[in-house]
Amino acid sequence: MSSGPPPDPIALRRDAQQLADEVLFERALDVDEAGEVPEHNLDLFRDAGLYGLWTPTEVGGCDFDELERLPILEALAGGCLTTAFVWAQHGGGSANATRMPAGSPLHERWARALATGERRSGVAFAHVLRPEPCLFAERSGDGWVLRGVAPFVTGWGHIDAVLVAAHEADRLVWMLIPATEARTLTSRRLRLAAVDSSVTVELHFDGHAVGDDEVVEVIDYDDWLSFYRQGLRTNGALMLGVASRALELLGPSPLDAELDAARGALYAAEVNEMPDRRAQVGYVGIRATSALVSSVGGRAITLAHHGQRLAREALFLLVQGQTADIRAGHLRRLGATDPDG
What we know:
Elements: H1 9-34, H2 39-47, H3 66-79, H4 81-88, H5 90-99, H6 105-115, E1 121-124, E2 135-140, E3 143-153, E4 161-168, E5 171-178, E6 185-189, E7 201-211, E8 215-220, H7 221-229, H8 233-250, H9 255-268, H10 274-296, H11 306-319, H12 324-333
Parallel strand pairs: 1-4
Antiparallel strand pairs: 2-3, 3-7, 4-5, 5-8, 6-7
C-alpha cells in the first residue's frame, strides 16, 4: 500500500466488490478444483491493499473498525470463498504483530510486512475451543517448547507466519512464529469437502522451541474466551457473502428480505446475542444455497455449476468458527432439537 491519505472504507468496499464480481467469481470454479489457491489471486488482494484491513495506518494498514471490515469480507467471500478464507486468516497474526511494542522483535519483523501484504500469516487456534486440549506449551529456559497437534491451519505453503495458541495449565500462550516446517514442526494435509484448495493442514509439534521474543502474550483462558466471543461477527460475514451470491443467481425471492434482516441483526448484535445471530445467518445461508440448487436442477450438482460449490461452502461455514452456543442455535433452527427444551 502506497503512502498517502488513509484508505476510504466505502471506496475499498467498491473495489472489493468489483474484484469479486469481475475476477474472483469468474475463477471460483477453477480454484475450487485446483487443489491450491493461485498465488495470483492472493497477489490481487495485496495490490488492492486488502491485507491492511486489520492494522493502523502507521504500519501501512487501513485503520478500519469491525463494521467497516464486514462488508468487504462479505463481498470477497461472494466472489471466491476459498481465496477469501485464506486471506481472512491473515487478520489475527497481522493485528497481533502491530500491537506489540514498536522496536520489539515481533513488531519489527512482522508488523509492516503483514499490514502491506509483503508477507502473509495464518492462525492455529481452532483447537483451543475443544473440551480437551491437544497442543501444550511448556516453559524451557528463555522460551517455550510446544508438543501436540493444531488440527486446522489454513493456507499452508502460502503463509510466512502463523499465530499459534497452546495450553499451559489454565492459560494460553500465544506466539507468532515462522510458518516453516522443521524436524519438530511438520504438517499433514486435510482433504475438505469444500474450500479444499485452501490447503488446510494439521500441524504436529514435537518439542518445537519458541523463543520469548516470539511470544505475543500469556493470558488466562477465561479472559481470552471473553475476548474471542466479541469477534464472532466476522465469520458470519463470510456466510453472508456466499448466501448473497446464491440469491443473486437464484433471482428475486422472499429469501432476499430474510438475508437483509439477518445481516442487519448480525451487525447490530451485542456480545450475548451473537451466537443466535450467527445461527440466523447460517440458517439463511443453508436455505439460500439449497434453493439455488433446487431451482437449477440436475445441472447444479455438476462441477461446472456454481450451485454445488456454494452449497458445499455454506455447509463448511456452518461449522467454521462454530462455538457450542452457535451449534445449539443451528440445531434449533434446523429442527434437530426442541425449541422449548
